[in-house]
Amino acid sequence: MIRMNEKKYYSAKGIKHIDILFQKRYNLYIEVITMHIKDVKDISDVAKDIKDLTEQKKNPTREGMEKVIKRVREHLILETEVYEDTLCVANNSTKVNIESIDSNVLYDRLNAYKTICLGYLLNKYGKEVFDKIIKEYNLEV
Predict the structure, then answer these.
(1) What is d(CA 74, CA 134) in angstroms, rounded to the nearest whole number?
(2) pLDDT digits (tens, 9 = 90+) for 10-33
């Protein structure tokens, strides 16, 4: 037990050890906070995509449909590539530029892209968080 008048001396090695432990804990906190910020941004971006896809379904414009589909493709590259590749195989066709797709076909794809977004959130964050996201962002499923 250390008394009030007693002096406690720490070795340089001990202080260095404490400093290393502090630095590791600090780095871990920064990493966790960074991951959380990235998740919040990811959720926010995908939720906005879902809202925009829903809005285009209600009030479609050629420019709006192209814009939202391009944005979903940017956010969910792998998921949308799989969808597009599957369409090509199913229709025995090649990929075409979005500007070359008929407006009616583009309109029909809005639901598929919305499903891709919803599936992404469900798979990445789980059912409980997914339900909270739907409620918090007031998304139409």
Answers:
(1) 22
(2) 666 666 767 776 777 777 778 888
